[in-house]
Amino acid sequence: MDEPRTPAQVLREARQKDSRDKRARVLTVVDQMLAEKEPVTFTTVARRAKVSHWLVYAEGVREVIEQARRRQARQPREDGARKAPAGWQVEVQITREDNRRLREEVDRLKAAVRRSLGQQIDQVGAADLRARVDELTAANQRLEGELAQVKAHAEELQGRLTETEDDLAGARTSLRRMIRNGNQEPAV
């Protein structure tokens, strides 16, 4: 009589079966790609077999894919089998020309910006710089004076606050005494 299987055994067997099925799908996809003379890549195999990238790099599967890739690399190319359609070749050429033209335009614009910045820097003379430094120094001194006034005012306000807090504490103490004394007088 068979012993009952534990849930862990059932789970382990299900995972092993799933793994075997996935590996079999990968091998089938590799064979199909070889038959169709489609370039075998790890990503394409994973996508077509609907498995994770991890599995196609796993031991046993990786070797099969690498062997298929080597076999394809050794096979002579047939004319037209891997040649891109004429429309694609035209698109690639147009894209290359656009890229070249855009690179030239970017270089030209960078040079124009450099020239413009250089002219702006040259236009600012030493006299302008001295005037600007004097203006900034005067503004700095004015701000330092305002800061000193604000600090003095803050110190004055802090003193007033401390004084007010002391008065409040004294008033509270007097009020407590009055309440205590009022509660201690006998009723007539």
TrEMBL record:
InterPro entries per record: TnpC-like (IPR046229)
Keywords of the record: Coiled coil
Keyword Coiled coil: yes
Coiled coil: 92-174
The protein's name in its UniProt record: Uncharacterized protein
Species in which this protein is naturally found: Streptomyces humidus
Lineage: Bacteria, Bacillati, Actinomycetota, Actinomycetes, Kitasatosporales
